[in-house]
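Sat 14:20. Reprocessing the chain from the morning session after the first attempt stalled halfway. Input below, unchanged.
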Amino acid sequence: MKLVPSRLGTGLVLVTITVSTSLGQGTPSTPPKQAIRYPAPPFPVVPIRRFAVIPLRGTVGPCEFGEPWFSCVDFAAAVEKAEEASIQTIILEIDSPGGFTRTEDEIIACILQAQGRGVTFVALIDRDAGSAAALIALACPHIYATPAARLGAAVTVLSGPNGVMSLEKAMKDDPALRAKYHSFNAALHAAAAEANDRCLCLSMAMYQLDAELWWSPTVGLSATKQDDSTEQVDSKTTVLTLTASQVARFGLGGVAQDRGGVLRSLGLSSVKPVDLSKMMEESPKHLASMLKRKRDLARQAEDSRLREGKSQGGTTPTLDRSPRNRSTAYEKRTKAWS
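Finished this time. Tokens:
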């Protein structure tokens, strides 16, 4: 049985939670001890003449159940188009419960590579950035959240024929495999934290159950308690989810009612955005077309069997076409979410 890790938030049927991480050669590492205080990274002072908007709405990765989702392939194509048009500021409008870890990793890698070429990303959390979507938001140097937004809860879980379980539980009898996964998975999040001058302890608290997070107005966020004024934000028995007010309080970003509020905050109210939402619809449309074709072929084959049975004068059992009996290969296949 093949298990593919992914991240899905509480907005869907599966609830997410992530695993411990390591940065060493296959052995678990200790969370950073030092406290890192950082304000939200300052936005470039150079006047912005053009900017693009890319929506990240629905599941992170393919979904066959008719719900919205987005693809890392479409995302990379949208970023490439923006760069070809000499656009170096991209706003990501995020409303997602999470999804597949592979798609998450590809999107984060694309963000980091584009940042290396001078592109600035602004994450606007429009309601939810759960699990995989939370880690994508943390890959952006600038974060804004609407008042009811949530950010976090990124533990990796597996979904398959035997039900749902955490990846940590699935690998508990194989410490070498667990160490390998944690080491490789943590490296990308460490790169994102370093690129955006954020403490790795923040993302660790979202996807590692036994990680802690502390905050104080003097030292900022840290993985350990620094002094008597330090407030515990996340314990070893919980995974971190932040509210919009906490995003602002901990210096991660700002609060805005909508895109207009973000544009006013960045001084972009008079700048016309380049909307790249159509590019994010390519893969979902293609998958929907393939699934429709598959259903049509199955229906044609079914009708053909009915006609053949009647022509031979035999009795043909009644076929139930109700949705509950349309089990697809996707529903049977082992899935992993976070």
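The two ends are 19 Å apart (CA to CA).
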